[in-house]
Automatic annotation (TrEMBL):
<dbReference type="InterPro" id="IPR051906">
    <property type="entry name" value="TolC-like"/>
</dbReference>
<keyword id="KW-1134">Transmembrane beta strand</keyword>
<dbReference type="GO" id="GO:1990281">
    <property type="term" value="C:efflux pump complex"/>
</dbReference>
<dbReference type="GO" id="GO:0015288">
    <property type="term" value="F:porin activity"/>
</dbReference>
<keyword id="KW-0998">Cell outer membrane</keyword>
<protein>
    <submittedName>
        <fullName>TolC family protein</fullName>
    </submittedName>
</protein>
<dbReference type="GO" id="GO:0015562">
    <property type="term" value="F:efflux transmembrane transporter activity"/>
</dbReference>
<dbReference type="GO" id="GO:0009279">
    <property type="term" value="C:cell outer membrane"/>
</dbReference>
<keyword id="KW-0472">Membrane</keyword>
<keyword id="KW-0812">Transmembrane</keyword>
Amino acid sequence: MATPVFYFRLVGCWLLGLGCWLLSVGPVHAQSNELRTLDEFLALARNTSPLLRDYAGQVSQNRVDSLIRAAQQRPQVAGTGAAVAAPIFGRKANGEGGLGYDEAVSNGGNYAAFASVSQPLLNGPVLRNDYRILQSQGLVLRNTRQLAALDVRRNITDQFLTAFAAEQQWSYNQNLLGQLRRQDGQLRQLVNAGVYKQTQYLAFYASLRNQQVTTQQARLTYRRELGTLRYLAGAADTALVLLEQPRPPTHRALAGLNSITQRQYQLDSLRLRLDREAVDLRYRPQLRWVLDAGLQSANPSPLYLGRSFGFSGGLALSVPIFDGHQRQLGYERIRLAEQIRVGYRTFLTTQRRQQYQQLEGLTRESDQLIASIREQLRIAAALVDAGRQQLTTGDITILDYLQLVNSYRGFQFSLTQAETERLRTLYALDYLGE
């Protein structure tokens, strides 16, 4: 039968194990908010970008503008009040002399308080065209927001690849430094055994110290590039974390006239057609009904004001006759804008096609270059291993061994650069597929 002491020990061990587990899990949860992947940085940048929020607000304002235009079509009510006196001083009975307006003009003054109502009639074509213009403006704002989001994604991705390349270079330098440190102890034993001279070891030791400085510089470079990435994305954390390697994007076909960058020219064409129709609608006769009710009097006395209540109503017609050929000038302005639009669209179409073909060629050449570097890296790694074995027997000089190590490090650096540039090219192709 178990004693109470045994149960206390069992519970104590369980609590101790639970505490150790919480301590080990705690830092993981504390670091769970740190950004490490490209998708996490892109999501944060989309949420924090004030430019994207600005365009989203402008889209909402565009919907409000449509409601304002609908309200303008409803009856408009306005109140008017006036108390204007026109006194006459020192005028004779026969109408001569004195100071003041002529009685036929002044009539003693104007005292009014009335409300007027008006509403356009037969205004359906104008209203529909205004709605189409507002809808076109909303489409332009949405497309501009997509363009801004594409630029944000491009900038974040480019900086992420730069930071990731710096991280890889730092990692390579750390691995090489660790390798040289492990080799340092072995070389000291060989020098003490008389296999190598002290001067040869000093050359190796100088290379080791140089690698320490190079590793520190690589760490600072990575910290700087990581800080720039966080600055662009709007991240607040400052811890030095390791980024995860991004996945290569899919190779999509070149987007045509319906792409985000080309769609703006289609929307510009629609806007120009609506502008031309708006010019035509401005020269249509405009009809509206008007109604007012209240009091108007030329005498401020209560007797006259009490008998001056009334109302009036009718139709108001406006017909444009001549405006100095502004209509033809408006057509000419729209024609010139269309020529500019076609020129931009043609140039961009040619530019995107040339860029896509060039990036495809760069992708193929990058694949060949990476395959060649990896083969050279494999050979360099085998030479370093062979040199390490010969180093123990004194069959290779320390300087020759260092040369092999430096050659291996150079191939590693070249591979990092080539892989990073290949990812840049693939993401550039991906953007052209939007």
